[in-house]
Structure to design on (451 residues):
């Protein structure tokens, strides 16, 4: 972390996570492809379920960001016992988070879909799907927790293996459980949810085993899992802005679906398909970002200013290049991409211009994601929150609503590039402040800087 060539280190840390997240994107897309074989209502139901699933992921990933940054920082400071305490408390936090969503899913899945549509088929499909995904989400929370511990200690290949394993399980069981193959019952959309949680549980078990056998910096002890308010506060000081930032994304999708359902349920299905497709571009960048965060955090703890700046430059360059490739593909072949989901003529008519318009924002988003990683690694996640709030709530939703009043659906999609341009301006402002602060607190070789 502190001596390897920065470019090589970033690639070593990031490429395994980029590959594993690409596979995650693949099984998310495969999941929707199989669901679309049921009917368009089923595909719409999965799209409407996305905000709740995203909220769970936001909590798990945001907590993991805090754990990752704090654990890496403690290791950089050579405070090894405190690093073990951080790892054990992260397990306790993951269990509590699961209990919250288990209760929410069991009680509110039906009302959640009834708030979004009056079409009974969509409500029925969605309630079945989301109830399973939430009440059995212990696999997802456990998987995220265990993988972050592997990532924070530089074992990204192990993290990649667990994600690949979970993805393969999901992909194998999707058609089996949805359509009742090989003697299994035909479960329909519930089968898609069951395959998802099965993959998560298997990945969690493998990640736990790898941590126990290979991760020397981490050991699990009941005595270390006692609530420690000081450690929990430090984890969430970094994690809460990330949780809020991603939770805002859930709220954005919920509100956008409400706007789109005012046109047609097909528009909401298109929006859901877009989110699945864009994950092929965004997931590798998020993997790059996940590799960047511990590098920044470790070198912040060790007082290596130049390595932090080099990591940021390399990360931004790779992210923008990935996003540019995604932009080209989206502009060139939107029709064939939509046909993967059994798109009707109406869905193609709506979806082709939607994808081409929304994807204009890709290149801007790549830079913003890397900047967010820098903010998180330096313990300044609040700037990531500022950017997310401005883009998704202050700009995107109001602009989308105002443009929807024109009655032209294509105008609504323009709200995405408009919002992304606004976010870039705020990101540059935040980076300037954070980097100036970094220079001030490390210029004399200080190992850390508070405030």
């Amino acid at each position: 972390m502190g001596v390897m060539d920065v470019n090589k280190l970033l690639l070593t840390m990031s490429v395994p996570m980029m590959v594993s997240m690409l596979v995650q994107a693949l099984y998310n897309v495969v999941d929707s492809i199989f669901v679309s074989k049921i009917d368009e209502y089923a595909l719409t139901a999965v799209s409407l379920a996305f905000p709740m699933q995203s909220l769970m992921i936001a909590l798990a990933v945001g907590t993991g960001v805090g754990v990752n940054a704090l654990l890496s920082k403690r290791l950089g400071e050579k405070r090894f016992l405190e690093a073990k305490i951080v790892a054990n408390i992260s397990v306790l936090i993951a269990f509590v988070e699961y209990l919250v969503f288990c209760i929410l899913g069991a009680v509110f899945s039906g009302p959640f879909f009834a708030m979004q549509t009056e079409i009974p088929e969509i409500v029925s499909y969605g309630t079945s799907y989301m109830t399973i995904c939430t009440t059995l989400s212990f696999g997802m929370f456990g998987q995220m927790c265990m993988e972050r511990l592997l990532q924070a200690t530089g074992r990204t290949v192990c993290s990649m293996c667990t994600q690949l394993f979970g993805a393969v399980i999901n992909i194998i069981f999707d058609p089996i459980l949805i359509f009742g193959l090989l003697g299994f019952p035909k479960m329909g959309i519930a089968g898609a949810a069951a395959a998802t949680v099965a993959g998560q549980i298997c990945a969690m078990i493998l990640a736990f085993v790898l941590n126990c056998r290979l991760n020397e910096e981490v050991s699990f002890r009941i005595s270390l899992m006692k609530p420690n308010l000081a450690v929990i506060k430090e984890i969430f000081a970094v994690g809460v802005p990330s949780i809020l930032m991603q939770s805002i994304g859930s709220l954005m999708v919920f509100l956008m679906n409400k706007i789109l359902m005012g046109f047609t349920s097909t528009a909401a299905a298109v929006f859901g398909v877009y989110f699945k497709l864009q994950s092929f571009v965004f997931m590798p960048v998020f993997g790059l970002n996940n590799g960047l965060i511990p590098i920044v955090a470790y070198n912040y703890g060790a007082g290596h200013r130049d390595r932090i700046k080099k990591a940021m430059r390399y990360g931004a360059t790779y992210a923008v290049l990935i996003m540019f490739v995604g932009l080209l593909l989206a502009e060139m072949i939107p029709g064939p991409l939509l046909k993967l989901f059994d798109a009707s003529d109406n869905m193609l008519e709506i979806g082709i211009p939607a994808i081409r318009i929304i994807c204009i924002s890709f290149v801007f988003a790549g830079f913003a994601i890397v900047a967010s990683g820098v903010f998180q690694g330096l313990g300044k996640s609040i700037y990531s929150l500022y950017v997310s709030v401005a883009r998704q709530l202050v700009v995107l939703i109001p602009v989308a609503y105002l443009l929807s009043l024109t009655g032209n659906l294509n105008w609504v999609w323009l709200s995405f590039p408009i919002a992304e341009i606004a976010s870039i301006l705020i990101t540059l402002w935040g980076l300037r402040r954070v980097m100036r602060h970094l220079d001030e607190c490390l210029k004399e070789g200080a190992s850390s800087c508070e405030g």
In short: The chain has a mean pLDDT of 86.
